[in-house]
Amino acid sequence: MTPASLNNSDAKILDGRTLANKIREKLSAEVQTIKKSTGKVPRFVNIVLGDSHSACSYANSQKKTAKQIGIDYKLISFPVATSQDELIAYVQRLNQDSAVNGIMIHKPLPSHIDYRIVANYVDVNKDLEGINVTNIGKMILGETTIIPCTPAAVMEHIKSTGISLRGKEAVIIGHSEIVGKPLSLLLLGEYATVTVCHIATSEAGKLIEHVQKADILVVAAGKASLVKGEWIKKGAVVIDVGINQVGDAVKGDVEFETAQKVASYITPVPGGVGPVTVVMLMKNGIEAFKIQMK
Ligand code: NAD
User: Fold this and answer.
1) CA distance 224 to 245
2) 220 CA distance to ligand 1 middle (Å)
3) Residue of 173, 196, 210, 278 best suited for mutating to test ligand 1, as the one with most atoms within 8 Å of CB
4) Average pLDDT, stretch 272-291?
5) How many percent of the chain have pLDDT more than 70?
6) How many separate domains does the chain show?
7) Which atom of ligand 1 is nearest to the CA of 278?
8) Any domain includes 248
9) Across residues 177-204, what is the average pLDDT?
């Protein structure tokens, strides 16, 4: 893709499915190479507590993508009453099992389980979602290739525009542990000037002024149509992470119709960040496999 000028006002749609297909093909070739040299394919386990139906949509798309890439993916379901200690014991068994290369714990979990505690038992080199504290710490140092999947997907979208982040004003709305905070580190790693906004930014009436200065705007607040097109700087790259059910429709955090008139690039919802997130999970697993083979 030709690098775009940040003054171009015709928004190009960053189609997540097309980008995900491209990444998937690369990963598939990588798995073939791994298979030839080791005789093995990466094996991932996703642990679900309770009704695996609620996990279906995300887990099914993971399963389908894993199959397309040639990864052995298993969804293991436990009763909802499984205790935290039992869950940790199972994670530890998977850590010890050399045939298992990647582990993830499906959210949401029942209230008697503390996700943070359990997630930290996942072996740092089998951490599919990149949420182990050691991997987060290594991200600060730029020392890990296992990166939280949604921020990694956002970075892939930005990279696909060909626009250099160096010296650009990058504004993130949302400071969660899975999106905003790790994304701020990735953007800093590319020498963007990063501002992270959150609920208190809105409460202070300052959200619009931050959005107005953004060359790169990433919105991950979980509030349908929070950002209006008229707030957005002409030619900005807009990445909408939000997923909001509005009646029968799924909407992002950005008012798409007005935003696409001013942005240079914009992700749709659905079909923007989501499909790329799933392939980034697979990429993490392949990185994990490579680390384990060393
Ligand atoms: P979260 O609830 O953990 O965090 C929300 C963040 O947005 C917080 O920092 C909060 O302070 C901020 N916020 C909320 N309302 C705001 C407002 N009015 N103004 C400014 N900031 C505000 O959410 P999360 O888990 O980071 O998810 C955010 C959104 O992204 C959700 O819609 C979620 O479904 C979606 N999501 C999508 C993917 C994907 O792959 N596409 C992955 C993860 C999350």
Assistant:
1) 8
2) 4
3) 173
4) 97
5) 95
6) 2
7) 40
8) yes
9) 97
